[in-house]
Specification:
Elements: E1 9-13, H1 17-23, H2 28-49, E2 53-60, H3 68-91, E3 95-99, H4 107-120, E4 127-134, H5 136-153, H6 163-168, E5 180-183, E6 202-205, H7 215-227
Parallel strand pairs: 1-2, 1-5, 2-4, 3-4, 5-6
Helix pairs in contact: 1-2, 2-3, 3-4
The structure holds 3-methylbut-3-enyl trihydrogen diphosphate (2 copies) and magnesium ion.
Length: 235
């Protein structure tokens, strides 16, 4: 643990809330509640470990296809946890940012997210990035639209569209790419998460359901990251 290199950016797909609920014979919404409670704790743990960017997939562009009952329960939880996250962020010097197309949410939720970003913007510790109504393909589509507008307006030439320009037009502009991606609950998919940014990340999968994923599991993932031989193309 002492000499462990802490990856600067850890991205997580929190998964398995539903199966955790099933295992505990409670409604799915209780699994999501347990997942939110766990998130509060893990944000604090991540900040204390010295992670600089911690990005969590909270709601995908595909998650709208779930039942209206489940989507409604998730929205209610987000409303409530925005307030709780503010407390956790302020207590831990954490700056909160959100990625994804928040325009699809109700206005009070948009206001809450703006408030959370605004209140925490001077914090100098970890940046906690919440991916809400996030999908990589949607993010890239929105970025391409902005680039196309700049080309049309004459402020950018097609030959000037470098990889850096594309990165700068994504929601994650200015953030380093994730070094480590963790997905809980045994699913071995990216599910439309940070597909551009994860190009060279180490991928780590665990069978643990998200509500049961605690600090020791995060540390185990970082230890495994340390055991891997980080090789970028050509080296
Ligand atoms: C992850 O848990 C939370 C969200 C996607 C919002 P799931 O709800 O996907 O849980 P499982 O996959 O059904 O167990
Ligand atoms: C991915 O989990 C999205 C989030 C964690 C928010 P899902 O459980 O929705 O993904 P799929 O549908 O199993 O791929
Ligand atoms: Mg799932």
């Amino acid at each position: 643990m002492q000499d462990m290199i802490i990856p600067a950016h850890v991205a997580v797909i929190l998964d398995g809330n539903g199966r955790w609920a099933k295992e505990h014979h409670v409604p799915r919404s209780m699994g999501h509640k347990a997942g939110c409670e766990n998130l509060e704790q893990i944000v604090e743990d991540a900040a204390r470990l010295g992670i600089q960017y911690f990005t969590i997939y909270g709601f995908s562009t595909e998650n709208w296809k779930r039942s209206s009952e489940e989507v409604g329960a998730l929205m209610s939880l987000f409303r409530y946890y925005i307030g709780r996250l503010k407390t956790v962020a302020m207590a831990n010097n954490v700056r909160v940012k959100s990625i994804g197309d928040r325009s699809k949410f109700d206005q009070d939720l948009i206001d809450g997210l703006n408030m959370l970003e605004d209140v925490t913007k001077e914090n100098t510790g970890m940046t906690f990035v919440l991916a809400l109504n996030y999908g990589s393909r949607d993010e890239i589509r929105r970025g391409v639209e902005k680039i196309a507008e700049e080309v049309r307006d004459g402020s950018l030439a097609p030959s000037e569209i470098t990889e850096e320009v594309i990165s700068a037009h994504l929601d994650t502009a200015g953030m380093p790419d994730p070094d480590l991606m963790i997905r809980t609950s045994g699913e071995l998919r990216l599910s439309n998460y940070l597909m551009w940014q994860l190009a060279y990340a180490e991928l780590y999968f665990t069978d643990v359901y998200w509500p049961d994923f605690h600090k020791e599991h995060l540390v185990a993932a970082i230890e495994e990251y340390n055991r891997r031989n980080r090789r970028f193309g050509g080296r």
